[in-house]
Write a structure and sequence with these properties.
The structure is a homodimer of 269-residue chains. Chain A is α+β, with helices and mostly antiparallel strands. Helices cover 50% and strands 19% of the residues of chain A. Chain A folds into two domains: 73 residues, Orthogonal Bundle (Arc Repressor Mutant, subunit A), CATH 1.10.10.10; 185 residues, Beta-Lactamase, CATH 3.30.450. Chain A is globular. Chains A, B: One of its GO terms (molecular function) is DNA binding.
């Protein structure tokens, strides 16, 4: 295979994904012209890629001239183990916690220096809309601090050196203070974040472990105000996290754990 | 652009998706050699595509030599409007129905001649595992019959001419009888399917409409046995479907409905 062909291949796959990346939570349906602009591709090239993506099902034509992400892509993407395996185990426990505590319950994982809401059982439709799949800052959420507390020292340091945004007047974005808070999360086993991402949100979160004792996710409770009971609520969340961790380990140790012991560094789940 | 380049482009995008299609619910982690065999691609080509997919996040290396679908693909795929818009509206109502009736609640859409479970609130973990995203036969499920009843006459006829599988001794797969059942579903507004997909499953389902009165999904209740109360349960499901339909229409008429009126034939949601 010639060098030019390799280079051309790379370019085509990258262009294809740049078409998919043109879509986001705000703009779920786009015209070819919209996509062309966002992906920085000529209209003809965009049209050609879009046509192929439609024929495979990665895009759907939702009306004459607009396109959206297709259900076929969603079907394949559900196979992401970080989503499907964890969701299947966690969901029944999340529903129980939701029913028992009457508050929103969330499940999150870390991707580099951000968190991603993997699943949620929300008390209101407003919160539910678009929340699953959204990214959130690690420093200003309880789930984020849990995930940060169990990240590598290098990842922690990388975050602390960033200019951390203050979302409200309560947001703790001083690296020194944050470092101390995160250390405490590791000791106490849970994190509390009160009005730091939004004035009307208080969250409590705890880690979920795999069979090797590695933190793979955070489960959290979200309420509108603190009410002074966050530490009490943390106990309920901790108990739920324990059940999920045990169940996940029982089901997936054979599948993931043993293999991962061999190459932990290469492959954080 | 030369014809050969167009052909080569097409080939690369298709090969890329054949790599993604190598994964399924049974095999969520594969080696390059596994993928190469399933996608019918040379190992070197497979390795090259896999490397690019990893760098974009469509695949993740979950250990030294195994790969799985990546969270970045899942993130983009969540933007599929058939999933996200409907899920956001339906989920709180599904949770209410689940809490009130104490049974599993499912949300499904049709893709050609199959159904896809879009969302589920399951009473047990066993049912939850892998269910969302799975496909199911239209003729042997309540949700499937609802979706079939509101499909085009051409789609219905295409299904009836197929050799329909009998999953249990109760499965109705005689085209003539099935046609009559499906007509009845359209009149009564709900479908019941008792032990036809599995001996231990009885389901009741009703349609969810968009603001234009088109059926966009089916919501169902799943229980282990019939108990003679399926028609009663249908009322509760109908009431829930009505709430979801109204809410969906209120939120998305502006976004989808008006545009779709212009080109309904091209773009069933």
């Amino acid at each position: 295979m010639s060098v030019s062909q390799v280079s051309e291949d790379r370019s085509i796959i990258e262009r294809t994904f740049s078409v998919l990346e043109a879509f986001n939570f705000q703009d779920r349906s786009l015209t070819v012209s919209d996509i062309s602009q966002r992906a920085c591709l000529p209209v003809a090239t965009t049209y050609r890629i879009v046509t192929k993506l439609v024929s495979w099902g990665a895009l759907e034509r939702i009306e004459g001239s607009r396109y959206s992400i297709g259900l076929r892509l969603w079907e394949i993407a559900l196979l992401a183990p970080r989503h499907s395996a964890l969701r299947a185990v966690a969901m029944p426990y999340m529903l129980q916690l939701h029913a028992r505590a009457g508050v929103s319950v969330t499940l999150a994982v870390r991707d580099e220096l951000e968190g991603i809401w993997l699943e949620g059982v929300w008390t209101s439709e407003a919160r539910c809309r678009g929340a699953v799949g959204n990214r959130f800052p690690l420093h200003a959420t309880a789930a984020g601090r849990v995930l940060l507390a169990h990240a590598s020292p290098e990842t922690q340091e990388e975050l602390y050196t960033r200019n951390l945004h203050a979302y409200t007047r309560w947001t703790q974005n001083d690296p020194l203070v944050l470092r101390a808070i995160v250390e405490q999360v590791k000791i106490s086993g849970y994190a509390i974040c009160d009005r730091e991402l939004s004035e009307s949100v208080c969250s409590v979160a705890t880690p979920i472990f795999d069979g090797d004792g590695a933190v793979i996710a955070a489960i959290g409770q979200v309420t509108e105000t603190e009410n002074g009971d966050a530490a009490q609520r943390a106990e309920l969340v901790l108990a739920t996290a324990k059940l999920i961790s045990e169940r996940f380990a029982a089901l997936h140790s054979a599948e993931y754990g043993k293999k991962r012991r061999r190459s932990r560094q290469q492959a954080p789940l």
